[in-house]
Write a structure and sequence with these properties.
The chain is of the alpha+beta class and 285 residues long. Helix content is 22%, strand content 26%. The chain is built from two helices and 16 strands. The strands form three sheets. Strands 1-2-4-15-14-11-6-16 form an eight-stranded mixed β-barrel. The chain has a three-stranded antiparallel β-sheet with strand order 9-8-10, with no helix packed on it. A two-stranded antiparallel sheet has the order 12-13.
Length: 285
């Protein structure tokens, strides 16, 4: 019996050892499965988050816009509605890696007192801002250049911006003074110095502007003229300028500090554009 009992004891120990090994293996397997499940869960969560982030890209983000073209700097002005004079301006820059990133925080802005209308349907003196995408190629102001790379003209009390629909060749052009021989009426032009707050600094929005290559100086009448007149019913002098007391007559305005920061940021080599429309229409312009 001792020999038999010893043999039974040995077999019992062997079974116990095997059982412990099986238990350890099962525990290890369970941990592996749990880890794998955690990885799958994390990957799944990442996919969900990525899809959610993609779904959350706002309609005014550059990749959602239609007419960005070769621009690497965008000012996107998003109105509350077609009848509102309140809007928000966003700024974006495209990096060397091809990715668009926000430049400044969102900025409160104002637009025309009568809201928005498609640029192709706008009528002069209706208080509407023209929906669309436009280049920004020039700037001006009553004070010295604040540091913008965009071609800048310091204006004075002699300067006008013409909107005389009966004189197409000078329509929507800057004029350095009102010559006695001029063909346009001062009553149908903005004397820029009359708006010292708004035009302390300003950028010109290229809405309904004659092509720069078509503009020459006419020494007979002492005025700039274009050989390619634009539509004289659409309106003129649409600018991005400093806030006044409230809404605008069709321009877009920002707070003074914000406007100066935007001007300093704009770089002609990056072909800046401004995209402007109410939220419901921003993806269409």
């Amino acid at each position: 019996m001792r020999h038999r009992d010893g043999r039974l004891y040995a077999r019992g120990s062997e079974l116990t050892l095997r059982r412990d090994r099986v238990t350890a293996a099962m525990n290890k397997f369970s941990k592996t499965i749990a880890f794998a499940a955690s990885v799958v869960a994390l990957i799944g969560a990442g996919v969900v988050l990525a899809l959610h982030a993609q779904a959350e890209v706002p309609p005014y983000f550059p990749t959602k816009l239609k007419n960005v073209s070769d621009s690497q700097q965008l000012i996107v002005v998003v109105g509350r509605s077609r009848t509102s004079s309140y809007s928000t301006a966003y700024t974006y820059q495209k990096g060397s890696d091809g990715i668009w990133r926000a430049k400044f925080s969102a900025m409160a802005a104002r637009n025309g007192w009568a809201g928005w209308v498609w640029g192709s349907q706008r009528v002069q003196n209706t208080g509407t801002s023209p929906m669309g995408t436009y280049r920004i190629t020039t700037s001006f102001g009553l004070k010295t250049n604040p540091g913008t790379k965009v071609p800048y003209r310091r204006i004075d009390s002699n300067d006008y911006w013409v909107g005389d629909r009966y004189d197409p060749k000078t329509y929507n052009l800057f004029e350095p003074y009102a010559s006695a021989k001029r063909t346009w009426r001062t009553s149908q032009a903005e004397r820029l110095a009359a708006y010292p707050t708004q035009y302390e600094y300003s950028a010109v929005i290229n809405f309904n502007r004659p092509a720069a290559s078509s503009v020459t100086w006419n020494s007979t009448y002492s005025e700039y003229v274009t050989s390619q007149p634009v539509n004289t019913t659409r309106g003129s002098a649409i600018f991005l300028h400093i806030n006044g007391a409230g809404s605008t007559a069709g321009c877009v305005s920002l707070g003074r500090t914000n406007l100066i920061n935007v001007l300093k940021w704009l770089d002609p080599s990056k072909k800046p554009r401004i995209v402007m429309a109410p939220l419901a229409d921003i993806g269409l312009v």
